Amino acid sequence: MTNEDIERVVLTEDEIQSKVAELGKRISEDYGDREPLLVGVLKGAFVLMADLSRRITVPVEFDFMAVASYGSSTRTSGVVRIIKDLDLEITDRHVVIVEDIVDSGLTLSYLMKNLRGRRPLSLEVCALMTKPEALRVPIDVRYHGFAIPPAFVVGYGLDWQQRYRNLPYVGTLKPHLYEGDGD
């Protein structure tokens, strides 16, 4: 499946699925007889969360949070707000935050500080992608997929104006589609 709006494929479907299987195996091995709570960060992480959960062989529970930091722009605003909080209590639980991408790290840093205040037994991060060159705060990602360049990407849960989330790969958009967006 290709899309005429995609300029370049950054991660193929096969690369992603192979990495998700590897991440699921590591999480399964690390948690053994413990039952982690996977916390998906909406909306982008829902695709990864679905695929990852099927690769984890230990019992898991799911919950979701929605946070906003991008708005309609292709760059992070640095302002984070919780739109949907957790339904489950995380005190004395093993929690794995599932993120599609860590860009500046500002959103995840805020989220981790917020969740640490709820006293989980452990708090780890699983991120399919990071942009090391764009990172503005240090983030410890225990389950790391791919380091990618600081380009704006879509697909596999990532969107631009709520489109392209359903692409099975990650790619860059042709610049004429978003030029002037948020600048």
Short description:
This protein is α/β, with parallel strands linked by helices and 183 residues long.
Average pLDDT for all residues: 91
Structural class, by secondary structure, is: alpha/beta
What is the radius of gyration computed over CA atoms, rounded to a whole number of angstroms?
A: 16 Å
Strand content: 25-35%
Secondary-structure element string: EHEHEEEHEEEE
Task: Tell me the major beta sheet.
Answer: 6 strands, mixed
Number of strands: 9
Termini gap: 31 Å
Helix percentage: 10-25%
Shape: globular
In spatial order, strands of the major sheet run: 4-3-2-5-6-7
Give the number of helices: 3
Model regions low in confidence, pLDDT < 50 over at least 5 residues: none
Question: How would you describe this structure in keywords?
Answer:
183 residues, alpha/beta, six-stranded mixed beta sheet, three-stranded antiparallel beta sheet, 29% strand
Description:
With 183 residues, this protein is of the alpha/beta class. It has three helices and nine strands; from the N terminus they run E-H-E-H-E-E-E-H-E-E-E-E. It has a six-stranded mixed sheet, with helices on both faces. Helix 2 links the parallel strand 2 and strand 3. Helix 1 packs across helix 2. It is globular and about 50 Å long.
Topology:
Elements: E1 6-11, H1 13-31, E2 37-42, H2 46-55, E3 61-68, E4 81-84, E5 94-102, H3 106-116, E6 122-130, E7 143-147, E8 153-154, E9 170-173
Parallel strand pairs: 2-3, 2-5, 5-6, 6-7
Antiparallel strand pairs: 1-9, 3-4, 8-9
